[in-house]
Amino acid sequence: MEIFVDGVAMEAEAGQSILQALRASGRDAPVLCYHDNLTPVSVCRACVVEVEGSRALVPSCSRKVAPGMKIHTDSERVRRSRRMVFELLGSSVDTSTAPELQAYMAEYGADPDRYGEAAARLAEPLRDDNDLYVRDYSKCILCYKCVEACGPDAQFTFALTAAGRGFSARIDTGADTPLLDSRCVFCGNCVAVCPTGALMPSLEQRLRAAGRWAPERQHVAETICPYCGVGCKLELHVQDNRIIKVTSPSDSSVTAGHLCVKGRFGFSYVDGPGEPPPA
User: Fold this and answer.
1) Domains, the chain
2) Residue-wise DSSP of the chain
3) What is the per-residue pLDDT for 159?
């Protein structure tokens, strides 16, 4: 079908979302709660666009294209809405480990400080109740990616859910149960999709806290997981000749970015019984 984006005619396929059509044409929109392998939940409103005939701005991640649709992706109304979304997030959560969000804030000229020092900020304690990953909800933007990855889109464990309302809204394990007592199987798929570092591997958190996390000294080596015959594709993040994190590419036909606890966290044996891993 033919649609019009910022006054330019382009082809789109039936069933595509506006975001998918934009990306197919080489364009894009900022996204925080969207992931290619997760069901769109349309909660962050960073990807909103203006559609002629629609009273409100629409989320491009979930709104389907229609023949003749006229879309504006960079109008003043769109930019103002996106800028306010980034300002509200930046004024309420710690964005220090959210480079993507920081880049969007710079691109749209967002100024969270204009809300003043009295702006309500999340003040959550660091939850470090296991050896594999930590939860720092002072950085959580409630994008729900972790809930979707833990639930029907990947793991079907349902250890995480959204709880509370308004300023009390949060991601929870149920009565704030420690992870070891919850349904969590420690696959880390929630960690993999978190866009802000609210969920972070314990080793990475310790390295950052010690000032030893050095992206400029890191490289990624691809390999196949050695634990079973499934053949999951791994990305080994290496710093100073040591594996510090394991991920899987989201476009892998085997994993779609998801791993089990062994594939994601079971790499310390590579260093052998000698010097302990960096901490």
Assistant:
1) 1-120 (3.10.20.740), 133-271 (2.20.25.90)
2) -EEEETTEEEE--TT-BHHHHHHHTT-----SS--TTS-----S-TTEEEETT-SS-EETTTPBP-TT-EEESS-HHHHHHHHHHHHHHHHHS--TT-HHHHHHHHHTT--GGGG-TTS-------B--SSSEEE-GGG-----HHHHHHTTTTT-----EEE--GGG-EEESSTT--GGGSS-----HHHHH-SSSSEEEHHHHHHHHTT---GGGEEEEEEE-SSSSS--EEEEEEETTEEEEEE--TT-TTTTT---HHHHHTTGGGGTTSSPPP-
3) 93
